[in-house]
Specification:
This protein has about 100 residues and is an all-beta fold. The protein is about 0% helix and about 65% strand. The strands form two sheets. Strands 1, 2, 3, 4, 5, 6, 7 and 8 form an eight-stranded antiparallel beta sheet that branches. The chain has a two-stranded antiparallel sheet with strand order 9-10.
Length: about 100
Amino acid sequence: MKMYRQGEVLLQQVKNLPQNAKKKDNVLARGEATGHRHMMRGQAQVFATEDAQYVQVEGESQLIHEEHKPITVEEGIYKVVIQREYDLLRDEVRKVMD
């Protein structure tokens, strides 16, 4: 199983794209403070279900972000996992933000 990580974004290889996944733009995560984005470039399409995102890579593609080096992603289907953190003071779990 292949995995790629860039900041708070993890791509984890899966066998299939869910049948209810719908195509969306290539942005995987947006930074709240800076407006920077983790996104796919090249021969990749991003899909979303109600509770998850997936990337289908069919050729040369990269995961890019303004503050990180590009990562070349091999062909396959990947589930997008956004890292979470626990805030002890607020007693809540939230997405990590770049």
